[in-house]
Design goal:
The complex is a heterodimer of chains A (634) and B (451). Chain A is an alpha+beta fold and 634 residues long. In chain A, 35% of the residues lie in helices and 18% in strands. Chain A has 4 domains: 247 residues, FAD/NAD(P)-binding domain (3-Layer(bba) Sandwich); 137 residues, Elongation Factor Tu (Ef-tu), domain 3; 78 residues, tRNA uridine 5-carboxymethylaminomethyl modification enzyme MnmG/GidA (Arc Repressor Mutant, subunit A), CATH 1.10.10.1800; 63 residues, GidA associated domain, C-terminal subdomain (DNA polymerase, domain 1, Orthogonal Bundle). In chain A, the strands form 6 sheets. Chain A has a 6-stranded antiparallel β-sheet with strand order 16-17-18-19-15-20, with no helix packed on it. A 5-stranded parallel β-sheet of chain A has the order 7-3-2-11-22, with helices on one face. The N and C termini of chain A lie far apart (63 Å). In chain A, 54% of the residues are buried. By secondary structure, chain B is α/β, with parallel strands linked by helices. Chain B has 3 domains: 105 residues, Gyrase A, domain 2, CATH 3.30.1360; 119 residues, tRNA modification GTPase MnmE domain 2 (Four Helix Bundle (Hemerythrin (Met), subunit A)), CATH 1.20.120.430; 165 residues, Rossmann fold. In chain B, β1 and β2 form a beta hairpin. In chain B, α5 runs antiparallel to α6. Classes of the chains: A alpha+beta (634), B alpha/beta (451). At the A-B interface, α17 and α20 of A face α3, α4, α5 and α14 of B.
Amino acid sequence: MGNNFHMGTYDVAVVGGGHAGCEAAFAAARLGCKTIMFATNLDFIANMACNPCIGGTAKGQLVREIDALGGEMGKVADFAAIQSRILNRGKGPAVYSPRAQADRRAYSDEMKKRIEHQENLEFKQAEIVNIGFDDNGAVCSVTTHLGARFDVKAVIIATGTFLKGKIIVGDVAYSGGPDGVFPANELSSCLAENGIKLMRFKTGTPARVAKSSIDFSKMEIQNGDEVITPFSFETTNPNPNAVCCHMTYTNERTHKIILDNMHRSPLFNGLIEGIGPRYCPSIEDKIRRFPDKERHQLFIEPLGLNTDEMYIQGLSSSLPEDVQVEVIHSIAGLENAIITRTAYAIEYDCIDSTMLYPTLEFKDHSGLYGAGQFNGSSGYEEAAAQGLMAGINAARKIKGLEPVVLERSQGYIGTLIDDLTSKGTNEPYRMMTSRSEYRLLLRQDNADLRLTEIGHEIGLISDERYEKFLTKKSQIENEIERINAINIGPSDKVNKLLKSHGTSPITTGVKLAELIRRPELDYFLVEEIDAEREPLPLDVAEQVNIQIKYEGYIQKQEAQAKKSAKTEKVRIPEGTNFLDIDGLRLEARQKLDQIKPLTLGQASRISGVSPADIDVLFIHLSKKTREENPKVEK
Amino acid sequence: MDYDTIAAVSTPYGRGGISVIRISGSEAVQTADKVFRAKSGKTLTDAPNRSINYGHIISNGEVIDEVLVSVMRAPHTFTAEDVVEINCHGGLYVTKAVLGAVYDAGARPAEAGEFTKRAFLNGRVDLTYASSVMDMINAKTKLQHKMALNHLNGKLAERIRNIRESLMETAAYIQASFDFPEELDEAEDDRIEHSLEKALSMMDNLLENADKGIVAKEGIPTVIVGKPNVGKSSLMNLLAQCDRAIVTDIPGTTRDTIEEVVTVGNLMLKLTDTAGIRETGDTVESIGVERAKNLAEIAELVLFVVDCSKPLDDADMQIYDMVKDKNTVIIANKCDLADNFELPFEIDAIKFCAKSGDGLKALTDKIEQIYISGIEECTESDTLLSGEREKDAVKKARAFTNSALTTIKVLSSDMAIDDIHSAANALNLIDGTEISDDIINTIFETYCVGK
């Protein structure tokens, strides 16, 4: 590095302007930190480099949680939404998942506009090539490729797939970032020099094709919902559906083309070294692993309203371009498709996320935080969630406040970060409802009830929004209390209603809540026999319905959460020497020493640490506490 | 801290005349109240602290044992929690039955060293004791695991594994459908109910045979019946002597009989000896008949002894009628004194001479034939659950599975999934499998999902 000059002093620098970087920058700036965000290309702020959609299973829940904490993603997604759906309608409210097709240019432009208007926040087009540390190992500066040094108190790295990005198509491989932009090739070596362990992950994206070249008559239509549930709890008028998606399938011929050319896939010719995500398999991987499956579903999704380009969901590939053309042309409706962007695989550097505390701060580098794909996750929503928490915790550290760590039972955000920091991941980590043991509590419908209070305490939720939230909360509580007090007698009117819904009539008085819990009924269907009912906003009524109807199930899981909260609350003092704890198995000592858990709950989730080890650790901690405070002895 | 309620036998199994079952935890007293009926009519909840209460343990409406129950309330107890101790009769069968009732009432089987662990964590045990508590937890966990592996023979372990796998596959399918709703065929949805029903029937099968398993481990309850002076005592002595490895003497449930566990071939018999009762006067025959009737009812195996040197009489025939539908072996004793004899029974008799021991081999073979091959016909001999703890685990797994199935039928699958996991976890207790989170692996290995 030649010319190195001081260009400014900030509290927080965010390296990267993607989904994680934007949330981190907003949070830090809003919490009063003078913040600067760097992106290698300012036309790619919050770029959707892969599918043009936000939300989906577990991810929709994440977006709702981000919104409840005061993040930006939900609002911008509502702004850019062009078709919205709730997935899993038939499977129960715990797994309802909002998902929206977004106009990706509108999304990116809106996010950029909001950043431009955010107080305390500046942004700059530059590649960060160096992070400076002081003598104590704490972060103190970042330097751009042009030699401009910014002195800072905290740095949040959110480099996505840019670090040493390598694009691979068939036997062609070159250095590059996503969507045709430059990679960031220099920061990796600076991180490695500072003892940060890097890994190599891989992901990919399918081809885009021109709408005018598609024969939609050979495909099935997929429409959006009639009544749209927006992501943000503040959005009152969600965008109507403006487009539809289409469905088509691969066929025998497609599979034959792929099998005949499998030897040309970079997965087999050694070009790809990185570990790809299992939930995002390329089409060649699906065909190799599931040879008996006759066809694979594909979705054709528009990239936006002002473009003709369409995304082929399900056809991710790193086969050579000539094979891709043949494959696409073998599919019903795509026989004459014009390919505008070729599918590619991308390999990039990321970190071993167990180097981070659950605050997302590096254990060995005070003030340095990681977020998003850099931490080994995948997906816009996962990235945004981490960006938000990293931004919050960086700001709180600067302000001398306690960090905020969400528990697994409080949100998918807590689950995501706990998984990454306690267990680590050996493939790009995607959020799934299967990763949560508290699925029934972590619903998309109650994200505000779970997290608005915390968002307000942190300072990201305005007093005005908080007041509105409190009103909603008390409306829900009052209505549930009112319903629980109602007894219904066996009148003709009641029994007529019951029979009309195919449920058995009553002969003695029953609680209205019991009727609501019958499989055939719900809160809305008993309105006729609930004489005193006052009109309530739909979101309040829906919440009342869910909380009454599923009460028993929800309570059971709440009890479970309460039980594990006991171990979550047992703190392990920083600096505990796990290697010296008598009675712990060697493997457990080493694992604990590596992860350095902050609570007993976190320790219990580390692989290789058994329940007996946790008992021993608990006893050790109790012993320490008692030795230090002998008077506490009962 | 506030812990759930645990229970275990806190005296050595099968030793001594009294067993103590200790229950500890926030619900200890309420749990005990569910199984205890005090003579005074008072509940334990109303009983004074540190009181001893006399009454009965009731399970499914039946009296299991006559007991003394002490109630000790927190914090001045061994664990610093509410503790109830049930003093019951020391026979293995009774102890297990009482413990089983306590589990059914809601207590969880205590883990190795758990009472001591709680005592320590609640500040009851001295600080200097800490490291030995830790050592004990580790040592006992290892031992327990080893024991779990040892007494779980291949086929039972395989059964448990199959049920668990079936449950986990169902869970994986449901969860895959939550996470990848667009990629799974909805047509396959019936298979959820189908496979839960299959798991239920596999568990039913295990439970039906559970009691046989428990007796196989602790000895098959066996009685020797027959008229007075046909040679029952000689047979008892012969069986007791022929194997020096007498496991234990257990004063039994009825005060006037003695139980003895002996091994015969590859089986253990818990013999109830009637020799201790004096047979006097003209009531001799009626006592013989009456006793045969009572004992035959509770026994699993009946050894019916006749004196083939004398003609059979009505008493013999009456006893025969009572026991012919049980697992009965007829022993034609004193065959050395009989030249030729024919017995009017449908069951073949074994020629026997208790004095010389002639016929012992035939008797052993016969009993093994009944048990080992007999069980194999309906299941397999070693797929039997062998203890209350295991039985409790399967019962709980069954209840969870049943609840999941109902929820799926009447409500929605999101509310059912936890019960399926709970069922699988309950089974983990049997073979010591660590709870694993490989459901996500199962999903990706089994289904072609992802974009």
